[in-house]
Design goal:
By secondary structure, the protein is an alpha/beta fold. The chain contains two helices and eight strands. The strands form two sheets. It has a four-stranded mixed sheet with strand order 1-4-3-2, covered by helices on one side. It has a four-stranded mixed sheet with strand order 5-8-7-6, with helices on one face.
Length: 133
């Protein structure tokens, strides 16, 4: 069996909202499947039991956890995006930071032309990179 590593994002009631937001930001993105909790199941009816979506060719899984946890996302694990141009890195940086926070503002840090590290309104961390040509 061939192994595959897939990012897995666990939310508490915001999985579908976050997934739809992420898919709206990338040209090559789509929602592949959404399975919802039904009546009498472990999670709140209608929330996401499992959803699969694709961002720029990368498969991602997300869920709404039926269990409340004392933890959430942390910045040291992040989604790393190599952008194609200054417009894309700027747009993604601005949109993802709305309602979130900026850990490293968009700038030239020497290791790329432009780079930003932001945490979005859902707590997911994103490193946005415009590589040197």
């Amino acid at each position: 069996m061939k192994h595959k590593v897939t990012p897995f994002l666990m939310f508490e009631g915001k999985a579908e909202e976050a997934m739809r937001f992420y898919v709206s930001l990338f040209k090559d993105a789509q929602i592949d499947q959404v399975v919802r909790y039904g009546a009498g199941e472990a999670g709140t009816e209608g929330t996401v039991m499992r959803a699969d979506f694709t961002l720029a060719g990368q498969s991602v899984i997300c869920i709404d956890s039926p269990v409340k946890h004392g933890f959430t996302f942390m910045p040291s694990i992040s989604m790393f995006v190599d952008c194609t141009d200054e417009e894309e890195v700027g747009t993604l940086s601005n949109r993802l930071a709305e309602g979130g926070s900026v850990m490293m503002p968009l700038g030239d840090y020497g290791f790329s032309r432009k780079f930003a590290w932001v945490s979005d309104r859902y707590g997911v961390s994103w490193q946005l990179n415009l590589p040197h040509e």
